[in-house]
Amino acid sequence: MPAYAVGLDLGATSIKAALVARDAGIVESMQVDTGARRGPDHVLGQLELAVRGLVGHVPTEHIQGIGVGAPGSVDLDRTTLIRPPNIHGWDRINVRQALRARLDCDWSIVVDNDANAAALGSAHYGAGRPYDDFIMVTLGTGVGGAIIVGNKVFRGTKGAAGEIGHMTIDYAGPQDRAGVAGAIEAYLGQRFLSSHARRRLDAHPDSVLYAMAGAELALLTPAMLAAAAEAGDTGAVEVLAWAGHKLGCVLGSCINLLDIRVVVVGGGISQAGAFILEPARQAILRYIKPGMHDGVAILRETLGNEAGMLGAAYLVFEHAHSHVSAARGT
Amino acid sequence: MPAYAVGLDLGATSIKAALVARDAGIVESMQVDTGARRGPDHVLGQLELAVRGLVGHVPTEHIQGIGVGAPGSVDLDRTTLIRPPNIHGWDRINVRQALRARLDCDWSIVVDNDANAAALGSAHYGAGRPYDDFIMVTLGTGVGGAIIVGNKVFRGTKGAAGEIGHMTIDYAGPQDRAGVAGAIEAYLGQRFLSSHARRRLDAHPDSVLYAMAGAELALLTPAMLAAAAEAGDTGAVEVLAWAGHKLGCVLGSCINLLDIRVVVVGGGISQAGAFILEPARQAILRYIKPGMHDGVAILRETLGNEAGMLGAAYLVFEHAHSHVSAARGT
User: Fold this and answer.
1) Which of A221, B26, B128, B167 is the most buried (most CB within 10 A)?
2) Which of A245, A259, A287 sits opposite B180 (nearest CB)?
3) CB distance from A279 to chain B under 8 Å?
């Protein structure tokens, strides 16, 4: 019987949803507004809407369940989403119960951190597919991370593993949003990187970025940096090399600790490709134990937004498999 | 049938060896010189000597095998020790084959990194016993590390996981022996810490450390620092607090990445107890994501030298168990 699941990527502004075939990937997808300011009930209603919009495409008995990737913490049972940032008034909600009640179903419903979902998507449908073990880092508003070991998410004791964004590369450095000094997010989080780029580019008034973003550079985006670098803009190339160096420093620490030597990079600024990844690779080699150089690789995730939806759906396939395995005693 | 194994802790200057009962711990122990300068054959002979000195204490059929903890790299099969520092002329030697030939036995023989062995010793006989998951850090000549997940060593893709010593806390900081800038070993490795202490204490000529180590402080040891702090010496207390802060910075990064919130600290300077561990604990809390504070603990390993021997022996018990499990299909 063909296996399908709905993957939901719950973001601050939109919910990206896909009907995913286990083997073939995305069959149908849609997007609805999160409406985060309207509170938890509204957001759950939007999740329900997305599921209802997708499940009609295949016979109900082929649907194995629903996976949800979300920002914030998730309990170890992977049913309850705890205080997702940006959703007003959401403390602890058992999303499995809430969606089952709304949809009047008993599908398997699994909730996980959005960084873990994106890494699972990469592991089974994206750049991570050739590797059993890799480190995923997602460069967006913040810096997200996840660890894949044996094609599964390594979750740690309480399920919060992979918080690369808060790892420090300078114990006396600038603070990230959580107040951690020298955390990599305080360099590569979107607001921090844009602000660094603005300062850096003030020395380059001839930069093509001025033409793109205006003299204030207030709207400087990762895509603009990537495009300007591609167009040969020295300032943009320097900013991306600076960012790549910082990224390589923290990834070096990750590789030293985990001995997982493959890194997959996703998120907006990863569009800059080699302009950021090659400086990162060079820094990694300088920040790891010399005996660990063999096999080091840093790759760009090209699935983009789809990684989160695919990985959320895969949470269901993986969950079903682990239950079957448990029943078989393997 | 009672289960025994010989645990060998192969150090640069001495081999510490114990006959270990699986449930009761060390039954007999002995120590022989490594004679590292006399080359691999001599060292293998010393290992043989230690085994022969111990196995006579119980009937041969009760001996399950020999475990070896050693500095340097070990292959994924855990049979071959690769370029251990300080042993002249040792490139790659299959220690299992070499010891089986010398002892004319077919015992199970397992080789692992000494930091991994110490962590296993802690997990099954020491401070780590109450915890399924913990991070072990050993502060000695260098800074060693290991990760215990589900009471087993997490080894990473190629078996080298746990290289905490090379993780950076300042991308522009001082270099460790391997050339990594800001690596924690460049602060807490014995030579680096002594040198920092010397500089720091030059401002405290009234320090009791002068009386202990002489005006040059050339022989300043971790034990002296601990004793001086215990005696109320301000300079020593400050140096240990400085060291604890640095330790907490790198452990914060480890906890962010792994979500393993218990840390066991071994090695010479851990004798300083709360003088180093309390500043480390405070720094950890400042360098981890605020949502991860719950359950953070940092403990001192009190097994001392015994951790390495016990853990080396446990490699054998664990190996035997995993073989039995595989045969049973579980």
Assistant:
1) B167
2) A287
3) no
Residue B208 pLDDT exceeds 80: no
In one letter, which amino acid is A70?
A: A
Contacts of A162 in chain B (CB under 8 A): 257, 259
What are the tens digits of pLDDT across the range A148-186? 999 999 999 999 999 999 999 999 999 998 999 999 999
Instruction: Please tell me which of the candidates B147, B168, B292 has its beta carbon nearest to residue A253.
Output: B168
Structural domains of chain B ordered from first start: 4-118+306-328 (3.30.420.40), 130-300 (3.30.420.40)
Q: Is the dihedral of CA A120, A122, A126, A127 positive or negative?
A: negative
Whose tokens are 């949502």? That residue is: B291
Q: If you average pLDDT over residues A43-54, what whole number do you get?
A: 97
φ, ψ of residue B73 to 5 degrees: the values are -95, 150
ipTM of this complex prediction, to 2 decimal places? 0.94
Q: Under the phi-then-psi rule, with left for phi > 0, alpha for psi from -120 to 50, and beta for the rest, what region is B221?
A: beta
Chain segment A264-285, per-residue pLDDT in tens? 999 988 889 999 999 999 999 9
Sign of CA dihedral B113, B117, B123, B124: positive
- Are B291 and A246 inside 8 Å of each other by CB? no
- Strands B63-70, B4-10: pairing is parallel
